[in-house]
């Protein structure tokens, strides 16, 4: 008869504790989304009910109808989708090229230039609002999507992330062999580097898409016409109500605005996790 040693019991207990902690962490992370769903499917008094209501109701479409009466929800959703996709695609393109250059090329001032890029991470967004606004005004881009997309087409974090990943995942021998075969640098990037860095691109793409989608401050500054409002500005309009806040209406709109983020994450989830894990492993 096989007996269980003290070490095996201790190891099993440690694994059980580890899984319980992970489960509790997952539940704590999911609960705000569940609470948002609960409030969005009940009437406006559910947020103040004692004890709290924890069951999903049947008032979602009634709450969402009031949203459509107050704001152009789907137009704002389309604006956010356009801005988020355009910015994300440009960030993936320019940051991957810049990361490739910093990781694999040697040129004068490379280290100092990379330090300057990293230094911009220390500058709060609020400090750049005034100069960016003046620049957008002189270009005539105020109240246009260009004022949101162009300043975000490349960022320091994206360059740093791609540089670190490419440096560890792409071997110098591959690049040298391709150069011997007569390939240009851009051809090397497209044919050899791009397939290797797909997980890193997926990770950066998800993070960028979420940041742009959730951005409220800068679009609020540069957008004036309601037809150009992104979803975050449109949702803010729901908070101005003389009769008090209708939390059922607000949460139904917020839940609907969160669904695209969940869909994007679920689609690219496998590459996202792969990028976070393998990017830190040296080949």
TrEMBL record:
Residues 77-268 form the ABC transmembrane type-1 domain. InterPro entries: MetI-like (IPR000515), MetI-like_sf (IPR035906). Keywords: Cell membrane, Membrane, Transmembrane, Transmembrane helix, Transport. Pfam families: BPD_transp_1 (PF00528). It comes from the Bacteria. The chain crosses the membrane at residues 16-35, 82-103, 112-133, 145-162, 183-210, 247-268. CDD domains: TM_PBP2. PROSITE patterns: ABC_TM1. It is a multi-pass membrane protein. It is found in: Cell membrane. Belongs to the binding-protein-dependent transport system permease family. This is Carbohydrate ABC transporter permease. It comes from Marinicrinis lubricantis. The lineage of its organism: Bacteria, Bacillati, Bacillota, Bacilli, Bacillales.
